[in-house]
Design brief:
By secondary structure, the protein is an alpha/beta fold. The protein has helices at 12-21, 43-55, 76-80, 94-98, 162-170, 191-205, 225-235, 280-284, 322-341, 393-411, and strands at residues 30-31, 35-39, 56-57, 60-64, 69-71, 90-92, 102-104, 110-112, 117-119, 124-126, 129-132, 136-138, 177-181, 212-216, 240-244, 248-252, 257-260, 263-266, 269-271, 276-278, 294-295, 300-301, 307-309, 354-359, 365-375, 380-387.
């Protein structure tokens, strides 16, 4: 029996049902001219903006996001290796605007928490409730030489940065391609391993000499390790080298040398991922240090009960995934609607779920689903993971169907 016909533990219909069940806001809608500002136009921010409009009649919702379109990081590796067009991952905010969300195409520069105002380059956006979904930024200082090498060593783990990674791959001069995995926590725990696999296949399909060398600072793969290691060994035994416990000491883009705690290597092309932290607005607003401090199960800022923080900027044991940010947007929209309507019942213990997929060939993938709940007694998050034991074609099809469904829900 081949991989494609082996039964899945992560059934496609289960994943899609979970993906689309969350948007069902309770029928009793709140009403009022409440002002909700949303910072960040990614998975979490778009979800929050759309679902606040659905949950509260007459809500004034303002999305503050400098880009005029959404670009999906999930599935973007297919664009990087030349198998998708950028347009298939890019969605303008037109549908959201038609639904009544005002878009301020500027960057949020600061939050005046006392006045309840978000300051942009030209505007002061007042709010009654603020949803922050600023995503991540790179801790460039953690890798000496990285900041100076930005143009030559693209990262590609934020929207629209994938263009630079694709250009670097297309211009690959030969030799080894060096990739890296940052220390946990980081955005999308299985994505660096997916990238290594599909770039290895990209080299195979072109008969290129050289290897993909994956430098992994973590002592073990954060999730799905047995499935990922089996895929590497079976598919790319001589093409892909995965080295764990490797710390990058310095990078020199001029000489194409990377110094590590286990030696020095040279490369033809490199795409390194520095450690991550929340977007800077979290720190400048006094909402956390490296990550935003929130209270569960409702994602309220620990410092300000008028501010919610969702998505990858949150400091917790929840995985940093697009789907979790999407469900968190619905979660906080529902909570804001409750507050506006004066519904003050118990919050419950439900937390958003995370659904992730990683491709290891263009046609085979693995799926991961993590359910979570808040234990108020222990003040801790309890997680339960469901992971495909083998890569398979059904998971690849589920990934495509899941992404199309979520994109349509996010941007209309």
């Amino acid at each position: 029996m081949d991989r494609a016909s082996r039964p899945l533990r992560l059934f496609r219909r289960t994943v899609l049902a979970s993906a689309l069940a969350a948007p069902l806001i309770r029928p009793s809608r709140a009403q009022g001219r409440v002002r909700v500002a949303v910072v960040g136009g990614g998975w979490g921010g778009l979800s929050a903006a759309r679902h606040v409009r659905k949950a509260i009649d007459g809500a004034e919702v303002t999305l503050i996001e400098p880009n005029r379109a959404f670009f999906s990081c999930p599935l973007s590796i297919h664009y990087i290796v030349g198998e998708r067009r950028a347009e298939s991952l890019t969605f303008p905010f037109d549908g959201l605007i038609r639904d009544g969300v005002r878009h301020v195409a500027e960057r949020a520069q600061m939050i005046d928490r006392t006045a309840r105002v978000v300051v942009t380059q030209t505007q002061r956006v007042a709010y009654d409730f603020l949803v922050l979904s600023p995503g991540i930024e790179y801790m460039e200082e953690a890798i000496p030489g990285f900041a100076e090498a930005q143009g030559a060593i693209p990262v590609g783990f934020r929207a629209f940065e994938q263009h630079a990674v694709r250009r670097a791959l297309e211009a690959h001069p030969g030799g080894d391609i060096v990739l890296s995995v940052p220390p946990v926590p980081y955005r999308c725990p299985i994505a660096p391993y997916e990238r290594a696999a599909l770039i290895a296949q990209w080299m195979d399909r072109r008969g290129m000499p050289g290897k993909v060398i994956l430098l992994d600072l973590n002592p073990e793969i954060p999730i799905g390790g047995p499935t990922i290691q089996a895929a590497f060994a079976e598919l790319y035994p001589t093409r892909l080298e995965h080295h764990q416990g490797v710390k990058i000491i310095r990078v020199d883009a001029q000489t194409k040398r990377i110094e590590t705690n286990k030696g020095v290597l040279t490369y033809g092309t490199a795409s390194l991922i520095p450690p991550m932290r929340a977007g800077s607005i979290v720190r400048t607003a006094g909402l956390g240090d490296r990550w935003a401090a929130v209270t569960f199960p409702n994602f309220l800022s620990a410092a300000d009960d008028r501010i919610y923080v969702i998505g990858d900027a949150v400091g917790s044991t929840l995985p940093k995934s697009g789907h979790l940010a999407y469900e968190a947007g619905i979660h906080v929209a529902d909570h804001i609607a409750d507050r506006v309507a004066g519904r003050t019942g118990p919050d419950g213990d439900g937390l958003p779920s995370a659904i992730c997929f990683a491709f290891f060939t263009l046609d085979e993938a693995m799926g991961v689903k993590i359910d979570a709940r808040w234990n108020d007694l222990t003040r801790d998050i309890e997680r339960r993971a469901e992971i495909d034991p083998r890569i398979n074609r059904n998971a690849a099809q589920a990934a495509r169907e899941w992404s199309e469904a979520i994109w349509a829900e996010l941007v209309g």
